[in-house]
Amino acid sequence: MKLRIVGEGPLYDQAERLARAAGYELVTEGEDLILPATENEDVLKGLAGENVLFDADAWAITSSRLRTDALLREKGIPAPEYFPGGSEPYIVKPDRGGFGLGIWVTDDYCEVGGAVNAGFVTQEELAGDVWSVAVTGTPGAYTVHPAAKLTYDDRRRRTDAVVEPAPEAEVLADTARAAAEAVGVRGVLEAEAICHHGTWKIIDLNARLPMLTSDALLTQGVNLLEELVKIQ
Predict the structure, then answer these.
(1) pLDDT tens digits, 151-163
(2) Omega before 89 cis (within 30°)?
(3) What DSSP string runs through 107-125?
(4) What is the pTM of this model?
(5) Which of 54, 182, 216, 226 is within CB 3.0–4.6 Å of 75 for a Cys-Cys bond?
């Protein structure tokens, strides 16, 4: 199969590793399928067609933290408490943007209130390990893959993902599946979650191949790109 990857940087590099592991031929034209490996909105809007491995409707939801959080609340899927609920400190996140950009933590009540008024997502910061769960498939027929524990640097950028047993793994899987059903994704969805006082709470969703988690799953014999191609 001939695959064209559109993108750059770490997402592109990861997609290329998955493609080579699957034995796909990488091309710049004459492709059978196109894989977006970018969060650039202009590039994504320019990609359309049945041969594109990308769910634009799901991305429209998960690329907006405000839309994502509104959906989680509507569907009753556990998430961190929103300001002024919960407890300090609060994590403040812009509506859009990835790789930890524009995120900060504060215990200044007035600063948090101002962030809310400015359209930021503000939630209590939960302590504990962050886990990434990849879900693939279509509504009503999802596969939940093994969870990977994530590590981050001091700028909240993901540095590693390792597949290992998660606490209450079945509950985590059910929570991730519920998030996928809520989004209605056709393809792949990454759910990031923290187990807080015995409850798995979703802290982020991404309707794209998950950074580093895809590599971690590859070591376990799961190639998420191959899973996407099967769905196509």
Answers:
(1) 988 777 789 999 9
(2) yes
(3) --HHHHHHHHHTT-EEEEP
(4) 0.90
(5) 182
